[in-house]
Amino acid sequence: MKIYLDCCCYNRPFDDQTQERIYQETQIIMGILRGCQSGNYEVIGSSALSMEIDRIGDPAKKQRVCDLYALANSHVNFDDSIEERAKEIASQSKIRTYDSYHIALAEKAGADVMITTDDKLERMRHICSLMLKL
To answer: Which has the closest alpha carbon to 21: 3, 8, 34, 33?
Structure first.
């Protein structure tokens, strides 16, 4: 199974784990990443993920997120078709720029599912049939 985790998934393990929902989402994400390490899943990285992670201001958190992101075992890059698809997604919805790139990149990579913890993005699920909100 090919899985695309958006950037909020890589950040989730470093959020307040005393909140039950955050703790449960973290357990699922970490399980997916363990499954990637054992070869059960293919976790897809992307140019958009690399750029978004690079924007994390806290150096310690950025390093921890980078360590998790390093577990992704395939990568998809921007090209003209990604740019066009991202613009199409944004024009049909209220999805922000990075999120529209994540969707376009997940589609291009042939992901079976794109996972997010973002409530706002989940409300736009009709734009992307791959999307699964934890």
So the answer is: 8
